[in-house]
Amino acid sequence: MGVTPAAGQTGSIRIRDDASAGAWDSFVMAAPDATVYHLSAWAGIIREAFGHRTRQLSAWEGDRLVGILPLVVFRSTLFGRFVTSVPFVNYGGVVASSPAAAQALLDEAVAEARRQGARSLELRHRVRQFPDLSVKTHKVAMVLPMAASAEIQWDGLDRKLRNQVRKAEKSGLTVKVGGVELLDGFYEVFAENMRDLGTPVQAQSFFARIMAALPSQTAILQVLHEGRPIAASFVVWHRGTMEVPWASSLRRYNPLCANVLLYWEMLKFCLAQGCHTFDFGRSTPNEGTYQFKKQWAAVPQALFWEYWLADGQAMPDLSPKNSRFSAAIAVWQRLPVALTRVLGPAIVRNIP
Question: What's the order of all strands across the beta sheet hosting 228-238?
Fold first, then answer.
């Protein structure tokens, strides 16, 4: 698409979508509020895994890159048209070195949403950037500053957690840490857990593409019982922060405390990779997963999902808590896992 004049701007900011991957990623690595999901590889992952159209908007002042905004365009028969940055993960949105660059990127994103006939534009920010936009603050990130060593981290744990880790170890549970060779086991646990939650599951190829694109920033951890994975997680790290976007455990093994052992092993792995922060992912305040993460001493950090809405449109709500989906969720929970692995990817591709 080349160069687009920045809508509503009279200054020197220009919006382009032809930035090289090198220039884009150099900006991401230098910007303190950028995340792993802003890296140029992520657009390719989403295009290949889900078939969605993407745009990589970049703001330029002369020959200097001053802002970025990755966009994904959804065209769903069931859910309509909308634009998101970045779907399927916790973070995204505008990263800019000046308010003028941020506004120019927003203006072009809104223009793109209008061109696509979208009902909304969703920007998943960690700070409030555009006070004139509608906003949701329904979720928080649960973040833990790491100790200097695993021994100090262990000593700082709640006594109940330490006892649960010991119980898991005494139950004969073992742990594996690795890469794509552990993907089958991770996906087996993940797919069953998502079925139990009533949520369509992504295709296994989605996770394979992430690991292929970011081999030095991703890993899988597994907790095994008699050689079979019963809890597993997929972690990604960037500039000193390790995040767990996807973690699951099999409910029938809850008495063995496999999930607690899994999280303790992730904290140890986080330290082994030299990271200073562990991000447990987003949660709804005071609900079950929030309380689980809080017991590890994770601190809630507000998230700001900001929205441009087309005329007459209400705030989007594709959450499983939406009562419109309760009957479908109940049916999904009764399906065989093998069937959900076939049907799920076609549905979840349009649920960001």
Answer: 174-178, 218-225, 228-238, 241-249, 277-283, 140-145, 299-302
- For 25, the domain range is 3-139+304-316
Backbone angles phi, psi at 37, to 5 degrees: -75, -10
What gap in Å lies between CA 74 and CA 333, rounded to an integer?
26
The reply to whether 81 and 22 lie within a common domain is yes
Alpha helices (H) along 214-317: 258-272, 288-294
Question: Is there a single domain that holds both residue 286 and residue 214?
Answer: yes
Whole-structure pTM value: 0.93
Regarding whether 220 and 272 lie in a shared domain, the answer is yes
User: Digits of tens for pLDDT over the chain (352 positions)?
Assistant: 444 444 434 368 999 999 999 999 999 999 999 999 999 999 999 999 999 999 999 999 999 999 999 999 999 888 899 999 999 999 999 999 999 999 999 999 999 999 999 999 999 999 999 999 999 999 999 999 999 999 999 999 999 999 999 999 999 999 999 999 999 999 999 999 999 999 999 999 999 999 999 999 999 999 999 999 999 999 999 999 999 999 999 999 999 999 999 999 999 999 999 999 999 999 999 999 999 999 999 999 999 999 999 998 888 887 777 778 889 999 999 999 999 999 999 999 999 9
Within its chain, how far is the Cα of 79 from the centroid? 20
How many domains does the chain contain in total? 2
The enclosing domain of 236 has a CATH number of 3.40.630.30
